Please model this.
Amino acid sequence: MLNQLSEELKINPAKTRPNIGSYWITTFGCQMNKADSERMAGTLESMGYQKAEAELEADLILYNTCTIRDNAEQKVYSYLGRQAKRKHNSPHLKLVIAGCVAQQEGEALLRRIPELDLVMGPQHINRLETLLNQIDNGQQVVATDENYILEDLTTARRDSKVCAWVNVIYGCNERCTYCVVPSVRGKEQSRLPEAIHLEIERLASLGFKEITLLGQNIDAYGRDLPGIKATGRRENTLTDLLHYIHDIEGIERIRFATSHPRYFTNRLIKACAELPKVCEHFHIPFQSGDNEILKSMGRGYTIEKYKRIISQIRDLMPKASISADVIVAFPGETRSQYQSTLSVIKELGFDQVNTAAYSPRPNTPAAKWGNQISEEIKVERLRELNNLVELTAKRMNERYKNEIHEVLVEGLNPKDQTQLMGRTRTNRLTFFPVQGPKGCFYKPGDLVNVYIETVRPFSLSGTSLK
Ligand code: SF4
Model:
């Protein structure tokens, strides 16, 4: 399989066919969805579709959806409604819904929006061409059955030419009581290390400088792969994978997300400190600062364990940046339990925290519990939390002021074309002038030393040294 894959990728990277129309993909939700959309765009282009200039000009509309919270799910229905109306005047229009809402709702979506042609779950991304061929025969297709995700031969159409997402594990076997992911993305499926290595080699040959390894629970990487060492330790872990891909020439930076405190190991922290290309940025959701709430969330760790992980990281990488996810107003959360979450943020100091108020999701245990928190309290706790997160992020960013940091240029600042934008190794968004003080011009993919002059809660500005 892998020899055929490498031969296929080396010989004819992207086979394109005569133009069969235009497509438009709208992506909702997480990095996994963004990576999936890039792969689907690659499939459509290899079939002969071209990216449309605008949504309303496209012959094929694909919504790659998210159901992590109710408002994310509701968003897609308004989009679909507009396109369903459009289809009455343009019967050739193909309407596809992919991703987590597609998986969650399945057949029911055809009843709700009869104009839909294809409903496909995340496990069917690599089968897009086959499924589209089926609808060409006038069928409506629903592909949400459990499916083993084979390695795909298509070349993703990536939005960036510098930074690339690389899926390493699909799905999640955890059972966090608020989370819909296991029921919509299915069981864990790790990709073979050799297939990941091959994809990254290929990205390096195309000039990519930074890769981000992706998984809903990336620390579970390899659990489903064979191989136990004599020591009894698993052979294929995330740490082993980082060592295995580290020496791929051309790649300057390696990142990974999303981590799980329950499985975050010292061995991983040591590897991140030792391996020069692995960036000092860790995204480790803690969700709540209260152990009772963590227990009812089914997270499988205590806040004390979480704090130990952060201090172990900072012992070996004092300048590392830490980001997290937090849910407030989980069923039964008291004012003091909520304040425990605020205390953790004050105590640990996060560079960024993605915040949300609890949203009951279908097929999740917590949605059925009686001790739900009122909308009013949810809004109030979220408002207070966001204020604290912004204050803390600004305080944390002060440490960059008057320092020189290496920035990987990703492109022009969309808001100011006289500026470049990129990220530090600690994932801080940074802006600086296109032309350096000594006349140097920089381009996407360059690693530039920037003297930081201005700090804001979620970004930095400065001047390159040359
Ligand atoms: S680890 Fe928990 S929160 Fe994360 S995707 Fe899995 S079930 Fe959801």
User: Anything to note?
Assistant: The radius of gyration is 23 Å. Confidence is low (pLDDT under 50) at residues 1-14. Residues 172, 174, 176, 179, 181-182, 216-217, 260 surround iron/sulfur cluster (CB under 6 Å). DSSP finds 14 helices and 19 strands in the chain.
